[in-house]
Amino acid sequence: MLKKYIKIKPIVTTLFLVATLLFSQALNAQPKGKDYKLACVGFYNLENLFDTIDEDGVRDTEFTPTGEKKWTSIKYQKKLGQMSKVISQIGDEYIKGGPYLLGVSEIENKTVLEDLIKMPALEKSNYGIVHYNSPDRRGIDVGLLYRKDFFKVTHSRSVHFTVPDEINPYDDEFRSRDQLCVSGLLNGDPIHIIVNHWPSRRGGEKRSAPLRNAAADVTRSIIDSIRQDDKNAKIIVMGDLNDDPTNNSVTKHLHAKGKKKKLKEGDLYNPMVQKYKKGNGTTAYRDAWSLFDQLMLSQSLLGKDYSTYKLWKTKICKKKFLITKKGKYKGYPKRTFNFDKFQNGYSDHFPVYLFLIKEK
Fold this sequence. Notes:
Layout: H1 2-27, E1 36-49, H2 73-89, E2 101-107, H3 110-117, E3 127-131, E4 141-147, E5 151-159, E6 179-186, E7 189-197, H4 205-229, E8 235-240, H5 248-253, E9 256-257, E10 268-269, H6 272-277, E11 283-285, E12 288-290, E13 293-298, E14 310-316, E15 337-338, E16 341-342, E17 352-359
Parallel strand pairs: 1-2, 7-8, 9-10
Antiparallel strand pairs: 1-17, 2-4, 3-4, 5-6, 6-7, 8-13, 10-13, 11-12, 14-17, 15-16
């Protein structure tokens, strides 16, 4: 046993030294010579965060005690606990308690967000909520959580999304999520956040593409209206776009690009492009990864003038507990349900987040 220990010990020591060096390099990756202040901004599709009440006029019956999901108060509380656990750990390699700003989607109403931020994992983070009801037939909305100690809301609005009948591929009247625009001060820096959940690929990617193109046009109009008042406005667009970073809705309609050198005036920088091209994704279907969850920035958040916030790095949150360990869906995000079978998971999407940095 002693001989085995002597052989193994140098390997363990080497691995420890390598890990220590990598961590040290990460900490020292910030610009040299000054102290810096970090801010974490993220987005997370919470995958059907419904309460247990059957609301009139909304297709939420499956998420009730008598519905297909047998959605009881016990399961609801477990879901809240799991979501709060994830949120509290997004960006925790540098910032504890959760992102300063977190866009969310697939939430039924403001009540579920109020219940969420009261969970033990988040109650000390002092989160506030911006939320408006959307006309989506399933009753799901988008929202923004913000830590009151770091962000002050100055204005918010919900922008209605409609599409002309001629590009609507569905027979019934189309309804989707409105887009949320929140303006405020992030540690004193003016910033605008646009939270999206674009139409799904129901009916096929090609058939439904015009809807996402139209949604991108709405987002683009919000950006342009902000820039009319301030062409140097700091803007972050986030959301579950149901399209990848290379789809036309993102590249041609939203004007978001993955290479800083190719940006034209008014274009967005999309740091998710390179991640997608390297095979990374946030959600999986039939053994293929998609990167639907994206964060994009106006050019005023780029560069090396750190007197105000600038982009430092962008990441996909793939903590081990979020990943399915075995079975048919091994490697996929561990979701709440496997069809109608409750498995006490998290979401079918991984969260995404970025760090902004400025001089103290």
